Amino acid sequence: MNITIIGSGNVATVLGRLLKNAGHAIGQVFNRYATHAASLAAELNAEAISTTDLIKKDADIYIVATSDDSLKTIKDWLPLYDKFLVHTAGSASINVFEGLTTNYGVLYPLQSIRKELPTPREIPFLIDGSTEENKLKLTALAKTISKNVAFADDAQRSKLHLAAVMTNNFSNHLYMLAEEYCKKENIDFKLLYPLLLETVTRLENNSPAETQTGPAVRNDLQTIQKQRDMLSAYPRLLSVYDVLTESIINYYSS
To answer: What are the pLDDT digits (tens) for 134-163?
Structure first.
């Protein structure tokens, strides 16, 4: 399949790599900043362009991997009428392309993606299309780069995106806070790695509700107060500790 990629950020880069490795031809890479377009295009053996008038009209699919804000105004800056346009956002509606074309869809990677890191071994893709034919085309494309492909409409995709924020973004923020605490207290954060891995491994066969441990689930108020005292010099971390502790206690006491 001949593909043009609009964008050169994390998703555009990783998606481009996957598609190229799967045997697809990346014809062009567009970014308003010529150096950004050139960097990704060189990696994908594609033509780099930085003005929309240079976008060729012969691609089979145009993947728009840009910010949600850019998608909101896409009709103002992307003159690709009657082409097959696809975005990669979790929270943007499939209908952002209405008025540009009748052939459009979504190819959303449900994964934390950073272009400077190794590509995750498994990336689930959620697809949607403006017609049944477009859904089939996107499903076939997604299956060339992933074993985990599912349909999700706007509502389902938005809910999964929210769940992903809680599962990945929030948990990673807690890791960051814990790492900062360990550094300030001169203890080795890496000693917690086996615990982190075990926490995730358990979820493969168990519900999170069944695997919760710690003083809050036991309603161990003495230990909780001791740990709160230890955080007296860390007001931001203490506030997070209090919110999560209260949430756990309330959940398991109800």
So the answer is: 999 999 999 999 999 999 999 999 999 999
